[in-house]
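Appendix B. One record, verbatim.
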Amino acid sequence: MARKSRKNMPAAAGPSGNLTEQAVMDLGQDVKPYRAAVYARLSFESEANKERDTVETQIAYIRDFIEGQDDMVEAGVYADVSVTGTTFDRPEFDRMMQDIRAGEINTVITRDLSRLGRNYVEAGNYIERVFPFLDVRYIAITDDFDSARQGADLSVPLKNIVNEYYSKDISKKVKTGKKAIWMQGGYSEGMPPYGYRRSDDGSRRLVPDTEVSGNVARIYQMFLDGMSYTQIAGRLQEEGVLSPPKYRFTKKGDAVNAGKSRDWCYAHVKEILTGEYYIGNIVHGKQTKCLATGRKNIHTPPEQWVRMEGVHEPLVDRETFEKAQQRVEAVRKEALEIKGRRPGLPEKPENKLAGKAFCAECGSRMCLKRHYRQASLFRYECVSPGKKQTHERAGRRNVSVEDAERMVFDVIHKHMVLCIDNVRLVRELNCRRENVLQYNVYKKEIDRLRKEEKRVNAARSGLYEDYKDGLVTAEELCQYQKEYEDRISLMEGQITELLIRQGAYDRNFHLNEDWEQVVQKYFRKRTLTREMSDAFVEKIYFHPDGNLEIHLYYDDFLKQLVETAEGRAGEADAGTAGALHEAVGRG
């Protein structure tokens, strides 16, 4: 039998000290460097898709994949249910990103690319920029995508475009389906209005909920008798009548959410008094959420509304409803007149922290409101009515808009100063001779590893020819391929680590180009603007004592930059001390 050629087979690892060869020797050890996050998402779970594609089936599929990997271990499960893939504002996804930044996870696995997201711009940004920057490997199993594989990103943009197109196409079909239900007099929205429930015959028509429908007629009568919204809400609360959200959760048997829901308030009463549902009408299309337009939650003009009249049993007669609308309008005009009688009253300022301000106690949004005693002043208040008395008993101090904007601006400005000073410091240190030499040392080692990787790749490519020539068996072919792939993977990891280290010694050092551009753009600003807030601020938590907990988008980058600068400065001081010691010794 011919002697087997070993030109394409892994060399035996010896005591050479080579890191790559040592890693091959350690291959049999129980080392699992990849801590994987199992991420699942489902836009909407219903009976129709329950057996086909649930979150549980996605998780089980990913776990089977992880169990088949020798270098991977499950580090956490994250599942978003009833969350669209066109947005990345998802609670479980945010929790996963926090764990990634905390260093608990270095791999993210989804069943396919669409589970990560259907917005190809955002999904591509995470796959091509965010995950690589955080040194996170991303795997989409059924799409055969692995960011650790060379050239794996070539098909990602195309697949994500298809996913987004699919999402928009589904949105169009859903909208068309809803219109068909409208034309048949059905109610296609979310929860039925207070006082009604959906019919049991599958027609989706509204029928009176006899347990609470009498409260609706009573509310109309109290209002026409002269009671205000707040007085009616107070009366119902005193009598122990469950508010609309509490009643809905109680009917579902969800005592936890029923307890958290808000009590009767003026908004509940006003919504009932202005709803055309109660005279048998349904008004559709007041706002659009169709993804096909690329925008969501857009209020539409009244002429575009679809009004279906007399499609279900009314709870109040039309005459009573019309009288109530007249009084609603009179109340509105009276409120405007009272406001207009106050000369010199300033307009409400722009809310520069809109969508970013939250209560640290209950997590509700903080809203910009006029001070109830000093009408010329504005302050941030928690919008949760259920927490109002708790806040007051705790001695909560609301924050004025001026103080909030000043504190946010101070944090952003300090952030920018630290960024500029530390980047300048690192660049100055990198111009020193010893640091230039260190940069070149890394460059030579990277070049060596790349040549070695190229050699191993060539050897791996020749394995199949050896198999065809009968020089190696099928079993040996698989064994050698795995060893080569492991060596290549290890070298790629070493190259990535060396590139990061080399970057810290670059004369034109920068941590993140986009971040530096943002800093340079706003550095000379002297007051907070909405544009600056959007560029820097992620979330702000208002504490009861008036302090603000401010989270910026680039906090992690700044922390890394400061650590790099301090480490480099320490190296420089150590080098200077060593030189002085040597000079003193010679003296």
